[in-house]
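Researcher: Here's the sequence for the chain we discussed earlier.
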Amino acid sequence: MKTKIIVALSIMLAFTVGYSINNIAISNTAPAYKIATVDIQKIVANSAEVQTLQKEQTIQMQNMQKIVDKARAEISKEKDPQKASQLEDKYRNELNQQKLALDQSYNNKLTSIDNKIKTAVVEKAKSMHYNVVLPKNTVLFGGDDITEQVMSIIN
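Model: Thanks. This is the structure I predict for it:
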């Protein structure tokens, strides 16, 4: 009987020690993921390149508006309906080509800026040992905000 009690106590002691060691091992582990957030809208709004691109786009659109005004004036002066129609087609084609070129240039520059921002985010996240970076507007709680650090790289 004594041996049964000793064996039962030994088993309970071994179980308690094993369970305690497991808890200690689990409590000392680092978090699995280090998460950061980035406010992309803030970065884009404060980017000097984006502001320059917007100014260029505004100037280009003003130039196109001048061409439209000139075309309207020229078409309205034309008395012959057939020549007026030809002028209208000529200006429409010219404006469409300019608009297409302008849009393509704008999109290429915007893509380049977007790639620079993504590269800066990845670079900063890796240097600060983050595993995951999420847009700030999709995160309700948590994560370290690295927006300012990314903006310092871009500007």
